[in-house]
């Protein structure tokens, strides 16, 4: 008897061990899905979606819905769209999803606790099905929906899933951690869709811009209902008038999801049929540090394309918790000081701290703002900026929160610190930085006690037997997994491509660009690398299309370069809107610049001194961003007037990154380049003498361009010596001689200034410009200022 029982069990084990193929189309009352059986998965009719137990840590699982088409090979790589128990993962043993005959759907942990339930009931019969749209629906025999996952989203909204007054998207905690995070996308009390940072201590709305009225942000607060949805073509519409189209609008076979990511940005992702990688086809905010709460109190968020996002403490403050930046920074100085004469201010360039102003100092000088701030014990410092109406404003801060340094922000911050501290420490930002968003390990160990089951010999044997079989299976699964993860690693390289779209530009087809430029008919420029044509995109944007000479560059290399340039985001750098890499065609699509290049403008004498000064400042800002936003990561290597373009307001944008060098910080010691880059007349001596190349080569070229702008003389041609002599002299020597040989300090600038200005200029400013330019063109690269220092020197007189 015992033997028969035993053999039957063995038999059934052998039959049921190869679980993997037993997926379900639907679950009916009285049945269950078990965490221990990887095959216990509910799939949608065309298997686009699956629902089952998804690993969120060691021995920790959540019941989830994920995209299962195309197959994601390893479960951890599948894209999850919904979770039942994101904050209460269940154990990897004996946990089950049970559909009771009474109609209640429950999730049990280790066979003991109910961690989640729909609390529905219906007699006589119920069924659970996952439909092709990714909606898990519990319905009764009459087809009435009792519960559906679309009504309780986590961080993702799928096409045709409505967002209503009862639903909110809440981000995950961090990359790889699916627990409830701090960012929310929801209909606010005034019926407007907003993004909210809802942190442990405070909360604040950061999108749409809070200083705008809803109507200014294009939203309407007066609705009859709250409803938003994205359709299957990629058209998002909302009752508050927010609407946008996916960049790939129109195709309904593309998979899409609108997700609020753990970094606080709301992104629409798209995935073409059969592709593994998701592409961002729309996003709510384009500046990575704009979301609130990324770094805690007293810290600054910075973003660089190569380093990602980083937090760093404001001067005078130190990190509270190295492992979690949301704790922010705490004072490093003695906070018990009270007397106003004990404090001074430290200047923080181009920084912004949002909110927590206790008043506004309207039309006050820097000195007056300082005095006011010193008088208030609670004043941590103040934001000081020009408000555009001819008046400076100060915003005294009770707290330093939401700090960041936007690339095109013109305000400064003055931090109040004790004099004793400042004299002790050098004025530099604390170097502590931790990269946010680095991948966390997938590990949590759940501590749940188990009730030891009653064992008998047979079961024990069976268990051993199963373990042995399981062991074999695990070994083979492990081998397969090894192979697959190799493949996955290779694929990750390709995934970089998705970053492309993150900055809002896209890949275009050759035909599209051929149409836009009317078959490349209107040439507007020509350079070593290719010809530039004017064109108009189908959406009406005017563009400059650069058609590179037929490829001696492979597609991967080209894409890598495009990727770098596409991530640049600064008002003084040319913006790339798209690109095309098709067969042998390589094209780049830029915004069209009304006034062409600085070279043309100088030739036609259309620039007065104010424009020249602003151009000098703008270029310096653009280059400073390239060099220092992320600690010297891009060298332009070809700064010259032909590569500085001017928009309709004569705002300069540095362009042509064809020769630029992306510095890999890990290879910084090996600063050798295969060939000389640049244009004669603008090239730093390092190139010629084969010395190490640093960002100072751009500083040198920039200095030459400034001398050219001031003097109107072309550095590529020698300057004829009129006063008694033959031969030529280069621009730098000429300017230096004029300076040193001048009879009085007042006259030398007059002698070198472009005659076409006819004496209309601000002498002080021009002197500064020339002085800075001469510093920039010093032989010794270490003696040249950095681009940031140049910006500071040019900004100073405007105060
Ligand atoms: C499932 O796939 C078939 C064949 O590709 C298609 O005709 C059908 O419309 C799909 N069903 C759904 C619900 O998308
Ligand atoms: C996710 O973050 C939460 C909150 O910090 C933490 O309690 C939980 O253990 C984390 N989960 C994982 C898988 O790391
Ligand atoms: C998007 O959907 C809205 C509402 O249905 C509609 O009014 C609008 O025309 C659609 N946009 C496009 C481009 O189809
Ligand atoms: C730092 O943060 C981690 C994660 O939130 C926490 O476990 C740890 O206790 C914190 N350490 C201190 C010193 O606060
Ligand atoms: C700003 O203050 C100065 C000096 O107090 C005053 O002359 C000027 O008119 C003020 N400007 C405005 C716009 O209030
Ligand atoms: C997380 O990963 C790091 C580096 O891979 C490793 O040193 C560490 O032990 C891991 N932590 C846990 C809890 O597994």
UniProtKB/TrEMBL annotation:
One of its GO terms (biological process) is recognition of pollen. InterPro entries: Bulb-type_lectin_dom, Bulb-type_lectin_dom_sf, Kinase-like_dom_sf, Prot_kinase_dom, S_locus_glycoprot_dom, Ser/Thr_kinase_AS, SRK-like_kinase. One of its GO terms (molecular function) is ATP binding. GO terms for cellular component: membrane. The chain crosses the membrane at residues 461-484. Its EC number is 2.7.11.1. Residues 27-151 form the Bulb-type lectin domain. It catalyses: L-threonyl-[protein] + ATP = O-phospho-L-threonyl-[protein] + ADP + H(+); L-seryl-[protein] + ATP = O-phospho-L-seryl-[protein] + ADP + H(+). Pfam families: B_lectin, Pkinase, S_locus_glycop. It is an enzyme of class 2 (transferase). It is a single-pass type I membrane protein. Its main location: membrane. It is found in: Membrane. Residues 1-22 form the signal peptide. Residues 518-799 form the Protein kinase domain. Keywords: ATP-binding, Disulfide bond, EGF-like domain, Glycoprotein, Kinase, Membrane, Nucleotide-binding, Receptor, Serine/threonine-protein kinase, Signal, Transferase, Transmembrane, Transmembrane helix. The keyword ATP-binding applies. Belongs to the protein kinase superfamily. Ser/Thr protein kinase family. This is Receptor-like serine/threonine-protein kinase. The gene is LOC107905610.
